[in-house]
Design brief:
This protein has about 425 residues and is α/β, with parallel strands linked by helices. It has helices spanning about 5-10, 50, 60-70, 85-95, 110-125, 145-150, 180-195, 215-230, 280-285, 305-320, 320-340, 370-380, 405-415; strands spanning about 25-30, 35, 40-45, 105, 135-140, 170, 195-200, 205, 210-215, 230-235, 260-265, 275-280, 350-355, 355-360, 385, 395. It has 2 domains: about 5-60 and about 320-420, Aspartate Aminotransferase, domain 1 (Alpha-Beta Complex), CATH 3.90.1150; about 75-320, Type I PLP-dependent aspartate aminotransferase-like (Major domain) (Aspartate Aminotransferase, domain 2), CATH 3.40.640.
Length: about 425
């Protein structure tokens, strides 16, 4: 029996309506940008498996470092112990994180990185006997699937059934270069009416919303108002971190730096799960006390797993290399050229790009999980390209190591797909 057939017996997949979509494609191998299925078909991974494997799948350098670490120290709980890979990773991260990130807290996925960020902000005020319990977040943001992360995400099929159980969040639109005053007025109204603990945002690019890029000056103005009112700012860089936007972090484009940052995905180069919530010294200090209960009682069993830390250190080494930096510039340039070619196509409503992220919105209505989306997905897969449309949007976010030929193929299938839309 094929893997695909055996899968159906016991497995419940995420983001799937099993009654309508009974099958999942079985991938047996991945190398650099190529995925191979159980029938031997090959696909270019044009979204880097949800933007994780940015240095290519099964990267030899990362595997070697992880393998050596596995032989030395595989796992150790992190509440009473520490280890070289966690310390080294923290040192390397602090060198590249935006100014003001002074402490590294380990988690194990993007949602829990966000969850910890939200809890840090709430307890920051709790420890000071101040009641602040409301958050500000952007419309249509996505921050993950745990309760805090769902609460701050825009309402969708992901969190709709849980709406009654979510924490209090007030929403503001993303800045588009024309609506700054309207947003700032709304924000100030919220500030006067509610006790706001934090503002969480995906800086510059909202990933799951469809790689929507917003205005950095507008975001900076929002952050300044938050800072002026002691609202803790939480940059969710789970998607944007580690070079995707052409800089280490999207926050590098914005003058006002966050108090807390959430990192995952490319952090470990797609090899193993891990996440980090970093924060400023000011936040860390608020948890220092003679009272045990003022500490941060949030922990995951695999926090700071040594193998994951080793993969992350290797990933940062690659990110710092001339080779990867040149690749990022090359892919950014190719996206720029493709954007010029495609932006006036009658089926394209809008298109955009930043760093290695490219996205276009179709002129035609497309449901997030509807027929046209399925038709496009099949069109791409039949032509050997794994692209996963999001709402109205077709987006590209390949590993940095993609070849020019592979990029051209991705561009071509996207252009061809517009004929069936
Ligand atoms: C910006 C952002 N935050 C948080 C998450 C949640 O990460 P995870 O799926 O690892 O829980 C995602 C996932 O796509 C994301 O894009």
């Amino acid at each position: 029996m094929s893997i695909k057939e055996r899968d159906k017996r016991y497995i419940w997949h995420p983001l799937k309506q099993h009654q309508l979509q009974p099958e999942s494609l079985a991938i047996v191998k991945a190398k650099n940008c190529i995925l191979t299925d159980e029938d031997g078909n090959e696909y270019i991974d044009a979204i880097a498996s949800w933007y994780t494997c940015m240095y290519g799948h099964c990267n030899d350098y990362i595997i070697e470092k992880a393998y050596r670490q596995m032989q030395q120290l595989d796992q150790i709980m992190f509440s009473d112990f520490t280890h070289e890979p966690a310390v080294k990773l923290s040192e390397e991260l602090i060198k590249i994180l935006p100014q003001g990130q002074d402490k590294i807290f380990f988690n194990d996925n993007g949602s829990t990185a966000v969850e910890a960020g939200i809890k840090m902000a709430l307890q920051y005020y709790f420890n000071n006997n101040e009641k602040r319990s409301t958050f500000i977040a952007f419309d249509n943001g996505f921050h993950g699937d745990t309760f805090g992360a769902m609460s701050v995400s825009g309402l969708s099929v992901y969190n709709g059934p849980f709406e009654d159980f979510l924490i209090d969040v007030k929403r503001i639109p993303t800045p588009d270069g024309t609506n700054e005053n309207q947003i700032l007025n709304l924000l100030k109204n919220y500030i006067s009416e509610y006790n706001i603990a934090g503002f969480i945002y995906e800086p510059l690019v909202q990933g799951a919303a469809g790689m929507k890029i917003h205005d950095s000056n507008g975001l900076n103005a929002i952050l300044k108002v938050c800072k002026a009112h002691q609202i803790l700012t939480i940059a969710d860089e789970v998607m944007t971190g580690f070079g995707k936007t052409g800089r280490y972090f999207a926050s590098d484009y914005i003058e006002t730096k966050p108090d807390i940052m959430c990192l995952s995905k490319a952090l470990t180069a797609g090899l193993v799960p891990m996440a980090i919530t970093s924060c400023s010294q000011k936040i860390y200090n608020r948890f220092l006390s003679n009272e045990m209960a003022k500490g941060f009682f949030h922990c995951h069993t695999y926090s700071a797993n040594p193998v994951a830390c080793a993969a992350a250190i290797a990933g940062i080494e690659l990110l710092n290399s001339k080779d990867i930096q040149d690749n990022i510039s090359r892919v950014s340039e190719a996206h720029r050229n493709f954007n010029s070619r495609i932006k006036n196509h009658p089926k394209v409503k809008t298109s955009r790009h930043i760093g290695v992220i490219f996205a276009l919105d179709l002129n035609t209505k497309m449901e997030r999980y509807g027929d046209l989306r399925d038709k496009l997905l099949k069109f791409f897969m039949d032509r050997g390209v794994f692209l996963r449309p999001l709402g109205q949007t077709i987006y590209i976010q390949t590993p940095y190591t993609i070849s020019d030929k592979q990029l051209d193929k991705i561009y071509q299938v996207i252009e061809d797909s517009l004929e069936i839309v």
